[in-house]
Design a protein that fits this description.
The structure is a single chain. With 446 residues, the protein is mainly alpha-helical. The chain has a single domain (16-439), classed as Amino acid/polyamine transporter I. It is built from 14 helices and two strands. The chain has helices at residues 40-51, 59-67, 69-92, 104-112, 114-150, 158-175, 184-210, 222-238, 245-249, 256-286, 302-334, 344-367, 372-398, 405-436, and strands at 16-19, 25-28. A two-stranded antiparallel ribbon has the order 1-2. Strand 1 and strand 2 form a beta hairpin. The longest helix is centred in the first third of the chain and has 37 residues, at 114-150. It starts with 15 loop residues before the first strand and ends in a 10-residue tail after the last helix. Belongs to the amino acid/polyamine transporter 2 family. Amino acid/auxin permease (AAAP) (TC 2.A.18.1) subfamily.
């Protein structure tokens, strides 16, 4: 099957077959979504929107507090570099073997075979489902933060706001047929994230100037420090990675590799610098007491904080669509949803299927608003393997004959190191779940 006819758009209706070492075929379907239509600049904004969520202020507490100033700053810089490097490895394999691999599982299946195809698919969708659920919790928390600014009656609980957020996310998901159709919304999301980041930065500076001397020591016992350091190290790399790079790269125009590299450099400059600024200033302002996001305990005018939280809510609605798009693509492709987005069949399908998917996601979010502990676990067993272990090993296997002995050793060291990190992060997450389970309650108002 021809995946590309020169302009980067696949036109064949036939399925591609990839054969593994045991000669059992992996069927790779064509996509019902639009591909090869976006500039590197638009894709750069997709990547940036994915990392600059309203939780950016929370990195002060989840990264800087457990690590301290020097390890925290150095860790963020190193995490930026290794994340850019790992993503560039995956990006360079997008056209490996003379064809475009528009899904992460397609690339893994082509290189390893059927089992890897299935495992990669499972890991990726578990990871993306947890991210989607986390975004709905974040959106609901932003709405609740607005509510408590103007009312202290506690009539409205977090699960109610999560339900409202899920409904709004479903409306947006139904209205936007595919990832490339975000276009103008990416600009809107950038403005919204900048509003939140600027407000968080300014109010944190104000608090920091007015506050007494802060405690920057790392809290906890020796044992707890070990586990929180491992967890913080995992959070360092979770902050920069989507686990769906091939799906995003599928939307970019030819030449896909060089354009994707431009988009990645854009993400790790324009996108990362604001995150650094808020993370560092938040830790400077609040020290070891940093444990907030959504400006819930930051001093400042009510209307300013309300504006920031409204921006956080709307940005989250847009960002969720990015991480839900692989599921949408799978469902649309499986059921042949092509043509005009406003066609009755296509619109009704999106209402029923996407609405159903986000209803399930919203129910899980409302049921388990403490999902952060479980997200750390799924990140350890999915984000690490997908982003670092698999990226290095796929590149090693694909370019084996073109790499020097030193380069091969480098990639094997990465595979082993991140394999150990994945195990350590999973153990740390399991411990966190065990400790926090004493306070867990379903449909909690937190």
């Amino acid at each position: 099957m021809e995946v590309n006819n020169g302009d980067g758009v696949g036109h064949s209706n036939m399925s591609r077959k990839v054969t593994d070492e045991e000669n059992s075929a992996v069927v790779i379907p064509e996509t019902a979504h639009q591909i090869s239509s976006d500039s590197w600049f638009q894709v750069g904004f997709v990547l940036t929107t994915g990392i600059n969520s309203a939780y950016v202020l929370g990195y002060s507490g989840t990264i800087m507090v457990p690590l301290g100033w020097i390890p925290g700053v150095i860790g963020l810089i190193i995490a930026t570099a290794i994340s850019l490097y790992a993503n560039s490895l995956v990006a360079k394999l997008h056209e490996f073997g003379g064809r475009r691999h528009i899904r992460y599982r397609d690339l893994a299946g082509f290189i390893y075979g059927r089992k890897a195809y299935s495992i990669t698919w499972a890991l990726q969708y578990v990871n993306l489902f947890m991210i989607n659920t986390g975004y709905i919790i974040l959106a609901g928390s932003a709405l609740k933060a607005i509510y408590v600014l103007f009312s202290d009656d506690h009539v409205m609980k977090l699960p109610y706001f999560i339900a409202i957020s899920g409904f709004v996310c479903a409306l947006f998901g139904i209205s936007i047929p595919h990832l490339s159709a975000l276009r103008l919304w990416l600009g809107v999301s950038t403005v919204l994230s900048l509003i939140y980041i600027v407000v968080a930065f300014v109010l944190s500076v104000k608090d920091g100037i007015e506050a007494p001397a802060r405690d920057y020591s790392i809290p906890g016992t020796t044992t707890s420090k070990i586990f929180t350091t491992i967890g913080a190290s995992a959070n360092l790399v979770f902050a920069f990675n989507t686990g769906m790079l091939p799906e995003i790269q599928a939307t970019i125009k030819q030449p896909v590799v060089s354009n994707m590299m431009k988009a990645l450099y854009f993400q790790f400059t324009a996108g990362v610098l604001p995150m650094y600024a808020v993370t560092f200033i938040g830790y400077w302002a609040y020290g070891a007491s940093t444990s907030t996001y959504l400006l819930s305990s930051v001093n400042g005018p009510v209307w300013v904080k309300a504006l920031a939280n409204i921006s956080a809510f709307l940005h989250t609605v847009i960002a969720l669509h990015i991480f839900a798009s692989p599921m949408y693509e799978y469902l649309d492709t499986k059921f042949g949803i092509k043509g005009s987005p406003l066609a009755i069949r296509n619109l009704s399908f999106r209402i029923g299927v996407r609405g159903g998917y986000l209803t399930i996601t919203t129910l899980v979010a409302a049921l388990l608003p403490f999902l952060g502990d479980f997200m750390s676990l799924t990140g350890a067993i999915s984000t690490f393997p997908l982003t670092f272990i698999l990226a290095n090993h796929m590149y090693l296997k694909a370019r084996h004959n073109k790499l020097t002995s030193l380069q091969k050793l480098w990639h094997w060291l990465n595979v082993c190191f991140f394999g150990l990190m994945s195990i350590a992060a999973a153990v740390s997450a399991l411990r966190l779940i065990a400790v926090d389970s004493k306070t867990f309650s379903v449909f909690a108002d937190i």
